[in-house]
Queue: 2 jobs
Job 1
Amino acid sequence: MALALKETFSEKTNKALGVNSEDAKLTLTYLSLAFIILFLGGTLGLLQGLNRAGLLELPSWLNYYQVLTAHGILLVVVFTTLFMVGYFYSGVSHTLGGLLPKVRKIAWTALGSMLFGVALVAATVFMGEASVMYTFYPPMQASPWFYIGLVFVVLGVWLAAFGVFISAANWKKRNRGQHLPMFSFFAVGGFLLLFLGSLGVTAEVLMLIPWAFGWTETVNVMLSRTLFWAFGHTAVNVWYLVAVSAWYVAVPKIIGGRTFSDTLARVVVILSVILNVPGGFHHQIIDPAIGEGIKFMHVFMSLSISLPSLLTAFAMFAIFERAGRKKGAKGLLGWIKKLPWGDVRFLAPMIAMITFIPAGAGGIAQTNNQLNQVVHNSLWIVGHFHLTVGVTVALTFFGITYWLIPYLSKRELTPKLNKLGVIQTLMWTVGMYLMAGAMHWVGLLGSPRRTSFSTYGDHATALGWSPYLFSLAIGGTLLFLAVVLMVYIAFHLMFKAPKGNTEFPIAEPEDDAAPTPQWTERWGLWIVIAFAIISMGYVIPVVDMIVNAPPGSPPFRTW
Amino acid sequence: MKQAIYGLVLYVFLMLPPVASLAESIMTVHMHMQMPLFVIAGMLMAPYLKQRFPGFFSKWNHNGVPGILLFFIIMVYWMLPRAMDEALAYQSVEIFKFISLPFLAGVPLRDSWNKLGSIGQNVILVSFSIISGLMAWLYIFSPTQLCNNYLKVEQITLGWAFLFLGLSIIIYFVQQFFVDQSQYE
């Protein structure tokens, strides 16, 4: 009874006051910056795609590798992080009853730190001082200010993470015995994973800074690469977890269904946090200096990450089928027709989910030593992460935008804008499939990644790549148009759409849902297990890399 | 029952010759992955055994101390460098390892843990973190090779693994004092 009263009370306040205007301002700032970054990164992507196909000559002051570095960092790190922080903070504010004033301050400070860092990074890249790609592998050496910029980005991420942890702990104290609302559970899990993953890269960057200033002469290349991938792999899985949160929390509500299982969703979060960080090793299958036995064991550690993904796939189909049958669907597959395909808030994340089937399968293939040899460092890999991050994550983010921005700006998604959104989604999908499909195929034919356009002295094999590279360029052009459309839609929803009331979609459990067990809330234990598993994965190879280290490498500037 | 089957499957899997020889080929994996997994297999089988032989457990381990003592002795025994060497050299010691870790360490641990109460649990956590610290110190700084079967670099690696294990236990132990679960539950 008390619970019911409380709920109606909070519902009433939400209805009367809507979103807290200061919290809305915070998220809208993050999202605006995210979409500006998307536009910049997308423009660079277009330039690079056309240049890679041999269709466009870049000016002498801007070369392919600068564009590639900036495109990678802006889209895979900055756009995603800004969106993640904005989106999670709005959800934490919504589900936990507004942000605490100190948390809001933390979030603004985090934004300042990130922007300062990004400014340093972007400046060094455009000055031609840091064409080191987004993986910044040593012994390629960028300007020290590039690495210092990265430190500020990571600091910002940590601040944002602790803001969410503080909010969650505070809410738990005020609501004893209750489960943290699912959305906030995802936020805590996502930020925890990002925090754990960034520990490695922080250590790496702190070694690179003195080396870049010339205070130390050499750097341990293998160690740096390993520490980088502890972060790099985890980061993409964090973005994926952010997307998954919307699938579990918002999508069921949008299609008029219920959540499948609260416990299952929480288990997916916990498993993602525990299992993810050692997965970074499958990016180093071809690296020397790691023993075969270790690589073999890491296949298991990598593949274990597909378990939560498969759980998610199962839960999603169950949600869709139940929702469809509730609407009177008949037969084995009749529920597919009952899904709201015309609603962009569903269509975009749905295409994202469907894309994760081939994208995830490709990922599993690449994790295997022998298959990896075929595609390593080819454009196949680039195609792969354009499907995972470029479709699964990005399209889900776009899908979120259609309800999150109007909810925050107290406006409405009009049918006309919805239609524009559907067009945008289809354009993005077609563009990405053309581009990523071509990348996959031409990668199998041997075209390398991270290499500017060359016909290799008109070699027949290299000339054979041209049709695929054209398809890549066409896809890239469509994608750029889709980016422009998306940025227009985002800002239209922010400032121009008609005033109205948009709800924050939070799915409810089934009426006969089993209660969620208390052990899902034992974060102390999950952190310790994650820490132990990270140690299991990294202690052996890292000690080997340090104890048996070669003298190290002096810096190289390849550009 | 389901748990017992999972435990049995894990147990058999770990004993398969290729799995066992791969796990034992790397010192750290031998001690920090294979051995704990045997203990976990035993823990998974414990409820079934308790259900099957309720009298035995209540008679011999009613306050949890004998069980945890047995667990402690077995664990400390398997931390001796010589024990690991012997497991590789003698079939009989290898079989003893396969039996002792699940049934003399895993089963009594699960049976005793809740019977011990928070003070007993904390004593165990602190003891194990101290032992891990000592082992870390021994393996990292030992001037000589301790195991005939493993190189010195593997020994150092194992030392660092012990350090992280100890740290994990300490973090878990300390967070209990800072995070009062009863405030949340």
Job 2
Amino acid sequence: MLDQNAVETEIPEKENPVESLLRMDRMPHIWCPGCGIGTTVNCFARALEQSKLDLDSVSIVSGIGCTGRVAGYLNLDSFHTTHGRAIPFATGLKLANPNLKVVVYSGDGDLFAIGGNHFIHAARRNVDMTVICVNNLIYGMTGGQVAPTTPVTAKGTTYPYGSYDPPFNLPYLADSSGAVYVARWTTYHVRHATKAIKEALARRGFSFVEIISPCPTLYSRRNRLGDGLDQMNFYKENSVIKNGADTKDVGMDFQGKITVGKFVDRERKTYRQLMNEHLTNVFGEQYTPYEG
Amino acid sequence: MKKVQGTVVIKADRCKGCAFCVDFCPTDALQLSDQYNAKGYRLPELFEPEKCTGCDLCGLYCPDFAIHGFIIKKVA
């Protein structure tokens, strides 16, 4: 209860703290009511603020899809690439200017179906970038087709009687391809996701954060799972936090338990370090290490 | 018990009525109001202002950047 000794200590602020990082002239955004992508953008913006990075040296790249629109809404140097090619573009960006902090922000379809090949090779080479994947378990923008992450028995427009394709286990794929940081959270775990993005931004090497998000218009409607809020409550009740869990065991079943947490955190030499070391060994004094 | 007094700012034109803020408010200070915005979405309201601690969890959950909370007073 308020009492008479109440003292004003702060001047009320009118603007939302993340507005400075967003292109407010493009709001309201295109995402459906109950979609979690906006929440992940909120987490990302706050992680970026807390990480105290120089915003002029941060660039964000995204592909095509609902999550691909993120690059257009963030007030950073951004590029909206062709479908699936966000990681090759980001690799080129990082090689041309190693001082940049490159972030790839895209959806599960763009990163793992159309651009799956690029993902595994960027992780294998350990290109220094942060990949944030918003996984809504379906192709959202094109109308609810079954994606490589759709769990078995979930329905999509291309599998009206339920999918029978075994899905990808994204943390396992990233781990086995060689990512140095792998975490998975849901849009319910906003504080954890913010912290994970902050940690991923601080890592040198290929860091990967998967955020599971509701898709109320396509995934939830076709599978009769209610709206975005029902999915958020489902995440709240069915998420199991297991930091350091073996990524082999974190696959997802249709409406089953979701294992979340930070799974991998290790150090490996980045692509540029390996290149400089190898070429110095071969050419000796003749070679000037590439620093951008 | 309570050490701070907070409040929220709601930008009605951006809200899409998903009710994440209402459901996940740690002190249950928010509820869905009887008001609708121009697009027909039902808006949240701060119906028990004295309960708000300005934690800004609503702001962190909001997918539309339409609500945020902040501390206005520290109660001695």
